[in-house]
Design brief:
single chain; 208 residues; alpha+beta; Nucleoside Triphosphate Pyrophosphohydrolase; five-stranded mixed beta sheet; three-stranded antiparallel beta sheet; 5 helices; globular
Amino acid sequence: MLKKIENNLSRRESTWLDQLSLKQSSPEADLPKAAVLLAITDEESPEIIYTLRSSKVSSHQGEVSFPGGMKEDSDSSLSVTALRESEEEIGLPQDCVTILGSLDTMVSRFNISVTPFVGVIPKNVELNVNSEEIEACFRVPLSFLLEDKRYRNDKINRNGETFYMPAYKYSSYVIWGLTAMITVNFLNRALDAGINMSVPSKIEGEEG
């Protein structure tokens, strides 16, 4: 599976972000830049690492996110930003991450250019949540996300068209917004998930 992810990320471009008018042509656009890490555990049934942001931070309080943050002048690249911020936030050693590739750069609701990087980490790596920015760190099975079981559909209007962005609930955590966009972009590009956002999908537990 990991080889498939690496191969697909190196050769495939997405189209749905273009339709949503959320894709940046380049991370060098004249916007503040940030990077996040979509970390996948190296095991037979891989899991993705998510965080729950603290209620004390200045933005995205109490939201599910990927580890990451703003690029600093000392960062030689955005991948370095993603690795540095992940170590600072959840104690993930930079030298235990193998970067497989990047996803589409997106613009957050705060008008920040965000570039996600996909990396593989050891399954038993120890993580911590001692950072003031993070309230919890949790793992979601890739198999769960591939089922596209939606907690709700978030309606988005772009260029006269309507799209339905998935929100997923795992345990007590709700994955939505930019984090859900990055997740679906990964599932479609890297794993051929074929998640369709042109129509609202059935909500988990809903009749009919």
